Amino acid sequence: GEASEGLRPVLVPVLHLPGPRRPPRWACPARGPPEPPPAAGPSSSSSSSSSSSSSAARPWPRCRPSASSSSSSSSPPGAAAASPSPSRLVPYDLLRRSLDRVLQRADCLQHCLGSRLGAAPSAHRASHAVRRDFERREPYNYLQVAFFQLKKLDQAVSAAHTFFVANPQHLQMREDIEKYRRMSGVKSDNFRDLEAAPHWVRAGVQHYNADEYLQAVDRLEESLREALSALEECRALCEGPLEEEEEEEEEEMQPAHYIQVLKCRQQCVLEIATKPGRISATEDFIPSHLDLLQFAYDQVGNQALAAECAASYLLFYPTDEPVLEKMKQYQTELGEDTTVTAREVVTTPGLYFLALPCPMQQDPRSRRQKGKHLNADVSCSSLSVLTSPTGPLPFEGITVTMDSRQMNGTHRVVFDRVLTESECKDLLRLTKAAGGTGDGYRARRSPHTPHERFEGLTVLKAMQLAQNGDVDWRDAKLLLQASEKSRKIIESYFTPGKKLHFSFTHLVCRTAVEEEQEGRMDLSHPVHADNCLLDPEGKECWKEPPAYVYRDYSGILYLNDDFQGGGLFFTEMDAVTVTAKVRPKCGRLVAFSSGKENPHGVWAVSRGRRCAIALWYTHSQEHAEQVKASFLVIQGQRQELEEEPGDVQEQGLSHIQEFKKEKSLNFLGACKLQNLEIGM
Ligand SMILES: O=C(O)CCC(=O)C(=O)O
Ligand SMILES: [Fe+2]
């Protein structure tokens, strides 16, 4: 109907590289196919404006299309000097040289940004230049020549046409195109734009636009599959040991393959150069398809698949209001106990590909045997390094500030705005009131360093304090709520569909002991991993007691920033090479997997008091903390519990029994929470 018409997602089905079609500036005219006989092909000599003395000897474009040169129509001196002798000028050489330039830039950029060495200025220039090359479709200019040399006329024509589409004012190419048109053996359908969306993209969209949703879903699914495998191939190409292999197999290299490599590289460069959160139009292909599919499935009455698409879409745009709204609606329609899961797509902002089962241990030689047809194993091997699996975040307003990639590791993330300023204030009040009541941490005042005082408070302790009237019930409850909120965020981000239980929750403050700061060299918290015993010398981490081996994920929710020092940092297994830093502040939640992949420590707090809620989670029900149960018991409200979904209910009830036995506390009179809702 009308209303749903209005909600139709805007279409952005672009797989090719986008870019403004502003007229490019040209340093040199592109040259047509080399052999001059007019009958054989477009002439390269007739309209040459070059004054270079060596032009007659060189059958190739005299000037390499250059992103930076804009003033001269003669050969840049550097380029001329670097030119191989005419006899060596086979198409591949030339093509390669132009590609190498781009590839070098890409590598440089990757390296530059990767190591975060004053990345901004040069890296961004490079990225613009690379981008410009692609916007201008420069490589196609070379390709047409290469194909022409190879006597692959149809491909030469489509390369020329593809270039011309983006450069309609290019006189030389216009002439060449005219010549191609007159050549026998050239068919009109050779004038194809190789950068245009492929047929399988258009078909789905056409059906969609014609409101033919049944056909649309089939075609869109097909299109999505194609796109995912294309992307995957790209990743493999981008990350594989490309140059080496090509060096050996140069003879066999096909120009089309170069183009593919180039595009892939370009995509990687863009991904890396793309600011966090900004998703380029190329990358928009998948979410936009998911968006269309969601609507189409909805229209054909398949709510389950529509919901699945919405959930998948939210992996890319976790805060998209209309889709979040839709999601809620689907959840209601499908029933709350139906779990809606996203498709097997993993993503970080700006980086995604299919989560295939990875043949991790594959012999690298197998790739070589398969020659240039790079396979999933290449991208798989990088999967664990480059990506974090993410699900939609269950709360609005929370942002992902840094992901694994930005933190140079695996399963690391920083969320912001998990708490408001006023919630931080309330929780800090709780720490004040609780101060001096013992550290809740094996009762040691300074477990890590004599230069700081360490205070801690568990949830249970907070509840008991509230019961005794030592702290405000609402503050105690807020501690529980903040913990549960963090749990939900971390669960949905790292392990959607797989329950994470509390393992231990601890509100901790580290206070600098003023007279103990001079010449201090130690850390507030030495480098460690949370579920294994780190051995930096042996670069190992022993997953055995007394380590808390059952801890699967760790979270630290920070409450303040008015102190000196106290930054969290991650290291390599050597415990000294810092790979990422996190500055604490109110509402910031850092989360990471608890294993050897995430050694971390805290720099000395040299002034003031640093407070945070440290949270550990486990998949193991056996090791689940009884926070929720204790909360319910304190309320004395079994009935609340009975409204919980099945598994929580069961778990809660059995924990109540245990809890009562263990603590032999009489909670019946402790019903102060009765009027406070449990709602998280
Ligand atoms: O407070 C922090 O930032 C980290 C604390 C930590 O790593 C721990 O308690 O295990
Ligand atoms: Fe830790």
From TrEMBL:
Q: Does the keyword Oxidoreductase apply?
A: yes
Q: Does the keyword Endoplasmic reticulum apply?
A: yes
Stretches assigned to the Fe2OG dioxygenase domain:
505-619
Bias-annotated ranges (Low complexity): 1-18, 41-87
Annotated coiled-coil segments of the chain: 210-237
What are the GO MF terms of this UniProt record?
iron ion binding; L-ascorbic acid binding; procollagen-proline 3-dioxygenase activity
Gene Ontology CC terms? endoplasmic reticulum
The identity of this protein, by name, is procollagen-proline 3-dioxygenase
GO terms classed as biological process: collagen metabolic process
Its required cofactor(s), as named, are: L-ascorbate; Fe cation
Q: What Pfam families does UniProt report for this protein, alphabetically? A: 2OG-FeII_Oxy_3, TPR_leprecan
> Which EC class is this protein assigned?
oxidoreductase
PROSITE patterns in UniProt? FE2OG_OXY
Q: Where is this region: Disordered?
A: 1-87
Q: Which family does it belong to?
A: Belongs to the leprecan family.
Against InterPro entries, the record matches this protein to: Leprecan_dom, Oxoglu/Fe-dep_dioxygenase_dom, P3H, Pro_4_hyd_alph, Pro_4_hyd_alph_FE2OG_OXY, TPR-like_helical_dom_sf
Q: Which UniProt keywords apply?
A: Coiled coil, Dioxygenase, Endoplasmic reticulum, Glycoprotein, Iron, Metal-binding, Oxidoreductase, Repeat, Signal, TPR repeat, Vitamin C
UniProt xrefs under SMART domains: P4Hc
